[in-house]
Amino acid sequence: MIEIKNLSKSLGNKQVLKDIAFNLPKGGISSIIGPNGAGKSTLLCLMARLLSLDSGSVAFDGLDIAKTRDDTLAKKISILTQSNAISSRLSVEQLVMFGRFPHHRGRPRLADEEFVTIMLELMELTDIRFDFIDELSGGQQQRAFIAMILAQDTDYILLDEPLNNLDMKHARNIMKTLKDVADNMNKTIILVIHDINFAAHYSDYFIGLKQGEIIVRGDVDTVLTQSQIKLIYDIDVSINIINNKKHIFYYS
Amino acid sequence: MFKSDRNTLISLGLLSITFIILFLTYNVGGSWSFALAFRGKKLVVLVLIAIAIATSTILFHTATQNRIITPSIMGFDALFIFIQTVLLFFMGAIQFISFEGIAKFLVEMGVMVSVFLAMFYWLFLRGNRSVYLLALTGIILGIFFRSLVNFIFRILDPNSFAVLQSELFSSFNAVETNLIFIAAPMIIACLFFVYLLRYKLEIIALGKNTAVALGVNYRATVFAMLAIIAILVAVSTALVGPITFFGLLVSHLAYQITKHQNHLNLIIISSLIAICTLVGGQFIFEKLLNMQATLSIVIECIGGITFLLILMRAHKK
């Protein structure tokens, strides 16, 4: 369970997040949605202790991130951020192996290597496992980073726009994989996602953020309605049910 | 771990040994014991400097996530000249000369390491971590120190100035061999700590966010790295004086020829390249060319051109 209590954050003079508080049960996929500049990425970074909290607290299964050791947290939460520039020359396989670092502390064992092989297979990277990261396309890099995050094998996985740079096929496959991981391996996945239809299709829970405040949260039927989307994004949409799933049509 | 780079390591190792033997034994005219002791001391200094500069440059690149700026390009040499000049100015020429040796070395080291750490703590670990800011600050501080030095030069009397000049232009031909016994243990201790940190270095190279997410204590590790860099740079500067582009040259050669780029490999290969360049170069210039040219000038020239090439290539990207 994730417990967030009256969390606030300012960057410069601007207050990015105001008094955020919510609890999130274990398991499933949750999506944080909202317009640009709503504070979605900041919230994710704060939860993963990449930024320091101005006030409030975040705890995963009772472990307060401000008081728990870094190496303990590294086995509890993993995060994929938006910018992943790497200056050293690494192969895909080496990068994914770094995801195992919290478990092997620098000396990979056979179990770690097997784990990496499975993740490479899962992210369809086996063919390019020896290629260098800086020579891959954006989508291939993104998949390599997701494989690294999954290799960390944590209970909580935070992903900031995991579908960046991905084509239709790989975007769908990754969402299916995430759903599978969440349901069958009892992981809790939290996404920041812009493609609302992907969110509608695969998420169990939604958090709508606007100007640093949570304005709505709940399941598909609570959050993905015409009135709530109008409230979050300020646009009119039409919602169609196809194959029992909501499709949000916003192109007109 | 070394498998893919075994050939590179073996050939560089053999080349270093060849240069070392040539340096020690070529054309010994008189007493062998005197020649070996004399050349041996000089050799030890050259090897120590080679390792210190190569290691500190690679660590610095990892800590700052860039491969262009090095401590010496940032104007660390200016700080060294500044300390020497201020010491002389306040002590006077006579005392300055009698203050030679270990005490002076330790004072210089202390000042350089604390200024370096303070500067980096302020610039780098507290928030803003832009490489451009780092480079600009370095250049401006460099100009600041050099201007102060120039000012002191003007008000010094000619005798003191001559003393200072000979002190500042310590070079590969006139290395400070009497400092070996204190410099060597410091460098070896630094290398030992680098060895302890070797796995964490790979994680630090992935950037701050990834390092924190993977459970490495980023601030503590980078601070330890900066402390090691500061000591290595200070020791090598105190031994032979400033060489601006040497670290850049050997580190980039290592990045080019190393296949499996973990830090252990990179540091060993760049150190071997540095030993080949210094010992081999010094052998060629001192023994074959009879001091007709100076090694440091050639290194600066080649290193400077490399620096420009790297900048141009980075610009193209």
Strand order of the largest sheet of chain A: 6-7-8-3-9-10
Order of helices and strands of chain B: HHHHHHHHHHHHHH
How many domains of chain B? The number is 1
What characteristic shape of chain A results from the CA principal axes? globular
Q: What proportion of the residues of chain A is helical, as a percent range?
A: 25-40%
How far is the first residue's CA from the last residue's CA of chain A? 40 Å
CATH superfamily of chain B: ABC transporter involved in vitamin B12 uptake, BtuC
Average pLDDT reading of chain A: 92
CATH architectural group of chain B = Orthogonal Bundle
What is the CATH top level name of the largest domain in chain A?
Answer: Alpha Beta
Q: Would you tell me the structural class of the helices and strands of chain A?
A: alpha/beta
Number of strands of chain A: 12
Q: CATH H-level name of the largest domain in chain A... which superfamily? A: P-loop containing nucleotide triphosphate hydrolases
Look up the CATH topology of chain B.
ABC transporter involved in vitamin B12 uptake, BtuC
Beta percentage of chain A is 25-35%
Number of helices of chain B: 14
Helicity level of chain B: over 70%
Order of helices and strands of chain A: EEEHEEHEHHHHEHEHEEHHEE
Per CATH, the architecture of the largest domain in chain A is 3-Layer(aba) Sandwich
Which residues of chain B sit in consecutive blocks of at least 5 with pLDDT less than 50?
A: none
Characterise the protein shown here.
The complex is a heterodimer of chains A (252) and B (317). Chain A is an alpha/beta fold. Chain A has helices at residues 40-47, 70-73, 92-98, 101-104, 110-122, 138-151, 168-184, 196-202, 220-223, 226-233, and strands at 2-11, 14-24, 28-33, 55-60, 63-64, 77-80, 156-160, 188-192, 205-210, 213-218, 238-242, 245-249. Chain A has two domains: 1-76 and 156-164 and 186-225, Rossmann fold, CATH 3.40.50; 80-153, no CATH class. Chain A has a six-stranded mixed β-sheet, with helices on both faces. The longest helix of chain A is centred in the last third of the chain and has 17 residues, at 168-184. Chain A is globular and about 50 Å long. The mean pLDDT of chain A is 92. Chain B has 317 residues and is mostly helical. In chain B, helix 1 (6-25) packs antiparallel against helix 2, helix 2 packs across helix 12 and helix 5 (102-125) packs antiparallel against helix 11 (218-240). The A-B interface holds A 45, 48-50, 69-75, 77-79, 81, 84-90, 98-99, 101-102, 105-107, 152 and B 61-62, 65-67, 198-200, 202-203, 205-210, 212-217, 255, 261.
